[in-house]
């Protein structure tokens, strides 16, 4: 029997790229987690918008077990049934003609940026290669994606970085119009900046980006790693904006907790990738795609998607009620079940402190920078669990205010 591990052993044995909480969750069910000591927590973090159907959903678990009893891995010299079923489901549900599967959002964005560069090179070799991205964006941790992300704190220590990436202000269409040119091969944008503070794009901004990309023959990439698979109340956020990208990246909720990512695109662009130009060992493996197929079946229904909008209102109403009493937030923003509570000026920089107090009260939430408490719970979280979680948040707010 294995010995009980402790939080201190993380410091002893793990490369220190994370600073996890003092407790270790060991069991989950629905929107609840329990730690080694048996303490319960309401989960409003969802593994950073990943556990879209909560923990240990019985139908997802069954899909995993059924596939595990067939074949786990083949390698990309062969295809498999679950990956083809999943590709067809995503194509039928979106603008896309083709899908590429990988293991994470960073890998999906890496594939999208490489494809955009390849398309640009096919038109003007060594000239059409500029990528426009946005300040405070987050696109992943590979060298290419961290360079495209607009947060120097994540990239500056790894210089020299990939070149020809320009960062402009988010939601500032005039800045893009002034800068974009024939050299631009792509614009990459999040419909809602998640890590950057839960900041939704203005509809006119995304519509303008579409028009500018068309004018300058540039590829429009939507990073929907965090907003995708029902998080905003649509299957993908672009569908609410009425703006269709050329490439869309998706991950996080797609596997409901099992690692998977995908890049979706149209035939005209997909044909630039040929055998050998890009690839991944594990991407599209039968276990991940069987699970993701079941996740998509469960989420892409009117009942679940409309339920996200209903749950959004539960959160907004109660958060506003808490704030009316304690004036701890200056704004509650976001869409669907990707929500950000912005700390009021007198509590500037204290989002992490509030999050730690919430954990002590038995609530797991997230932050998005020093000033935003972020929520990304299960898309099917029951109303009683929302109420209990927000009761615990209110107790944490009381302690912060005191």
Automatic annotation (TrEMBL):
It comes from the Bacteria. Pyridoxal 5'-phosphate binds at residues 105-106, 138, 223-226, 281. GO terms for cellular component: cytoplasm. The modification N6-(pyridoxal phosphate)lysine is found at residue 252. It is an enzyme of class 2 (transferase). The keyword Transferase applies. Its cofactor is pyridoxal 5'-phosphate. It catalyses: N-succinyl-(2S,6S)-2,6-diaminopimelate + 2-oxoglutarate = (S)-2-succinylamino-6-oxoheptanedioate + L-glutamate; N(2)-acetyl-L-ornithine + 2-oxoglutarate = N-acetyl-L-glutamate 5-semialdehyde + L-glutamate. CDD domains: OAT_like. Its main location: cytoplasm. N(2)-acetyl-L-ornithine binds at residues 141, 280. It is found in: Cytoplasm. Its EC number is 2.6.1.11, 2.6.1.17. GO terms for biological process: L-arginine biosynthetic process; L-arginine catabolic process; lysine biosynthetic process via diaminopimelate. Involved in both the arginine and lysine biosynthetic pathways. Belongs to the class-III pyridoxal-phosphate-dependent aminotransferase family. ArgD subfamily. Homodimer. NCBIfam families: arg_catab_astC, argD, PRK01278.1, PRK05093.1, PRK12381.1. This is Acetylornithine/succinyldiaminopimelate aminotransferase.
